[in-house]
Amino acid sequence: MAKIGFIGLGNMGAPMARNLIAAGHQVQVFDLNQHVVSQLAEEGARACKNANDVAEGANFVISMLPAAKHVQSLYLGDDGLINHLGDDTIVIDCSTIDAASAKSLGEALMDKGIAFVDAPVSGGVAGAAAGTLTFIVGGAQEHFEAVEPILQNMGKNIFHAGAIGAGQVAKICNNMLLSILMAGTSEALQMGINHGLDPKILSEIMLNSSGRNWTLELYNPCPGVIDSVPSSNQYQPGFMVDLMAKDLGLALEAAQNSGSATPLGALSKNLYTLLQNQGAGAKDFSAIFTLFEKK
Amino acid sequence: MAKIGFIGLGNMGAPMARNLIAAGHQVQVFDLNQHVVSQLAEEGARACKNANDVAEGANFVISMLPAAKHVQSLYLGDDGLINHLGDDTIVIDCSTIDAASAKSLGEALMDKGIAFVDAPVSGGVAGAAAGTLTFIVGGAQEHFEAVEPILQNMGKNIFHAGAIGAGQVAKICNNMLLSILMAGTSEALQMGINHGLDPKILSEIMLNSSGRNWTLELYNPCPGVIDSVPSSNQYQPGFMVDLMAKDLGLALEAAQNSGSATPLGALSKNLYTLLQNQGAGAKDFSAIFTLFEKK
Amino acid sequence: MAKIGFIGLGNMGAPMARNLIAAGHQVQVFDLNQHVVSQLAEEGARACKNANDVAEGANFVISMLPAAKHVQSLYLGDDGLINHLGDDTIVIDCSTIDAASAKSLGEALMDKGIAFVDAPVSGGVAGAAAGTLTFIVGGAQEHFEAVEPILQNMGKNIFHAGAIGAGQVAKICNNMLLSILMAGTSEALQMGINHGLDPKILSEIMLNSSGRNWTLELYNPCPGVIDSVPSSNQYQPGFMVDLMAKDLGLALEAAQNSGSATPLGALSKNLYTLLQNQGAGAKDFSAIFTLFEKK
Amino acid sequence: MAKIGFIGLGNMGAPMARNLIAAGHQVQVFDLNQHVVSQLAEEGARACKNANDVAEGANFVISMLPAAKHVQSLYLGDDGLINHLGDDTIVIDCSTIDAASAKSLGEALMDKGIAFVDAPVSGGVAGAAAGTLTFIVGGAQEHFEAVEPILQNMGKNIFHAGAIGAGQVAKICNNMLLSILMAGTSEALQMGINHGLDPKILSEIMLNSSGRNWTLELYNPCPGVIDSVPSSNQYQPGFMVDLMAKDLGLALEAAQNSGSATPLGALSKNLYTLLQNQGAGAKDFSAIFTLFEKK
């Protein structure tokens, strides 16, 4: 069993930390929200007084924060965590941030002899609670092997995408593609409906043909085709439009930085922005289906 | 066993007719190309002298032609087939044409008491030869039930999409979505490659995540990820860029006629046109991957 | 002065015919709407009993109809006008239709020795009333020279675009570009507004820079920048969204027929379809500005 | 006459500084390139030993640098210029950078009581040499009035776009719109050409119709329509594809930061990226016309 520092106990971080406690690790936690720190202390964690305190004797330090600026500030800010980490600690950043920031953080840590992997997740709050997250890891092979058993306590699929930063790149490639699948499937279903087809039948046909994709299988955007998905529940999230728009922002930044042409991803981003501007930011991302409806 | 008239013995039609002969039906065939008519006669079909001759005593008449104008001319032209079909013949048009033309042909036939289904196929030349085509059928329930056993001699999956024309609509919805999957997957893979990721690993990650789709599963557009698909064989088709562009033309016509917004489908169409204009029309449609390459 | 047959007395056709009467020509008119025929008879036209009657002794026959099917039916239908036109009549079709239909009509007429030009207009109802329309003419040089003085009685700018059909092509190229200018200008203004800029000042800057275009000059889509344009009058048309969408449909058909890549035109078309599907089809086409608003 | 510090003597900065010298100002210059500093010293400037030296007694300090990181480093880096500027100096940053960076620089300077305007330019190297640049200024009214006479020594049109940062926003709105005009005009011309129209005639028609825009007037992308523009000279720049792509990157960042939907701008950006990936980055930005050509 390991000693694990955990910083960032939000909707995702708290249940992830709980799963580490449940697996028998010695977990020491910090968050600006004292309430959630106390809660986790009651559940078996050690409450830390500040961020740097989580580094104390830790084999692993895990961070799960909202954006790159928080991650940078935590590790590289004035009196940052970088100055408090031991040589044999491995840092695992599970935040979803841009690849360039992940790389520069990794380089800064490696310069001081501290191992680093970026390990963004997918699977949402439900996956965090159930311990079924997907982790997409960037970092050296030996570090991947070292962190894999820890991540398995919180997730089901653990992928090694490549060098430092590759976890972020792979996640953002996947989510950009997901937005295209969702918007494209929505377009196709609406065109069928406009011609009088039954969306259940059309979905069934495409699911068994070359139009098959994850959204048709598990997350149909048309209300009533699959029970128990957000579209059949007034588009209650699930994965919010605002979060998909944030990920698409990271994707376009990654495209820009690498000179990649992503015309469908860029269009998809703008369709999601139109949806946000109609006030649907807090709905599930499958609500893109409604953008194509005849009102 | 049935008596079946078959018109249109091209790359698709000839092997389809062969499968009907092999199943034991009495098949009578016509094509403007006398050579292929003779060939099929040697294989057991009755050679007809003209198109109208195929109607003679037929339980079913099947047509497999390149475009709507050929279908219209065949059935509704001067001294068209409509005047030679018996009351108890069921017409099965397997051509891929626009839904509006399919509907108006169906109406013209029904007005004369002749049953009609549109039944476009997918699966390509290989599927036609192997008898594993997918048929997407539009027409009345009783007519679907009547034609289903015949279509099973030529295909594996037989779907009933709805009323007359619905087969064409469903096929075109599927193929529009397929073009989006292919182009979107290509973009995502290229962006990963531009960041130094291995496309095999990135494909594997997305295939096991929410980016999963038919192209990643069975038809990866990046050379070397899946052996034996067109991308690993210099983009030898397969399903040609020119044919995908034709189907996308039908899709946009269907969108226009129904007031459907299909921004990703329209963009995908234009990316395929850019590819055609670079001289790649005869390559496999997965060659859209090369459009996003850094030269 | 000439003897001129005129068919199609709608919002555009009626004032055009009036301007011909006012110029002193002998005008003989027909429309399915008897009321407007009677009105024009009171204003000096000869009322015709049917479409073919307008051909009687005419130097020119002008048609102004809603769509290609009406034009084809008029000239080439059963007992069509083609059978009643004299050898020395010049046919001027002012309808906005697809180029392929214009060409095939022109060929059918030329085969019978009848001269033809396509001459679609821009300038709207106001321009028709004021006699300030723009005519974009396709046809032989000698026919252009023959019709030019007649068109000058109804318009201000008379362009010769090329051979038969070229008038339609040039008009549709222009209107596709116009939709791009309008949507692009709207995007740019909204982005400025979202950053706190005054749209009047931003418009003034872009009008004097390389962003200058017809919409900024004469038809600003942002309410309050230019008085007396539709955007400053609740987007009362003007040129309706539905009509722009129709023209964009013709443009994409022209792109399809010629293998032209028009990605921005196709996207613009789909943005206009989204606007229609929100119920704004009867507003002025500058209302595309509202699609980009934060609600 | 004023004492003016000038930092950044590249293709744009050097001729701008020359025009200030020619106008009789006392100009003190710095650049990392010693050669150009010596040149300007021979032409009447005072050569500074380092960046901070240009602040010495200056009424105005002007910077003209390639990107935000250079600007930030110059003013706000270790021992940055901010520590060497007098209270009565007005800082004029003419670099094209993102609005957020301009705002935060402005705030940092204002906090120390130093006046700031952002004043990005358009007009290119030719305009810099001729003293005919356009300046788009963001800052307080009194500071605009103070810098206007100085900018008039280097340019012809001096606009006041709004508060600090507004100059960058307005420029980027304009250049995003320009890219849309250029790509849209190219599409429309190619579609006309594909139908057999003469691009000179089609350009003339659209220039006199509602398709009129700056590119048709002054910078036609089709070779041979306007002499002496880049398209008629093998697309020698002019304004490079790479620079337009950079500006479009800033535009999309500005869209992202403000939640603006810019679907045409985003598509235009990706078309320019496709062009870069074909190896055309160093050509003039009107070369987007060639992307739509049939090869």
From TrEMBL, chains A, B, C, D:
Matching InterPro entries: 3-OH-isobutyrate_DH-rel_CS (IPR002204), 6-PGluconate_DH-like_C_sf (IPR008927), 6PGD_dom2 (IPR013328), 6PGDH_NADP-bd (IPR006115), HIBADH (IPR011548), HIBADH-like_NADP-bd (IPR029154), HIBADH-related (IPR015815), NAD(P)-bd_dom_sf (IPR036291)
Keyword list, A-Z: Branched-chain amino acid catabolism, NAD, Oxidoreductase
Chemical reaction(s) catalysed: 3-hydroxy-2-methylpropanoate + NAD(+) = 2-methyl-3-oxopropanoate + NADH + H(+)
Keyword DNA repair: no
Keyword NADP part of the UniProt annotation: no
Domain 6-phosphogluconate dehydrogenase NADP-binding: 3-162
Coiled-coil regions, chain positions: none
GO MF annotation terms: 3-hydroxyisobutyrate dehydrogenase activity
Family of the protein in this entry: Belongs to the HIBADH-related family.
Record pathway: Amino-acid degradation; L-valine degradation
Source superkingdom: Bacteria
Origin species: Pseudoalteromonas qingdaonensis
Protein name: 3-hydroxyisobutyrate dehydrogenase
EC numbers for this chain: 1.1.1.31
Pfam families named among the record's database cross-references: NAD_binding_11, NAD_binding_2
Domain 3-hydroxyisobutyrate dehydrogenase-like NAD-binding: 165-290
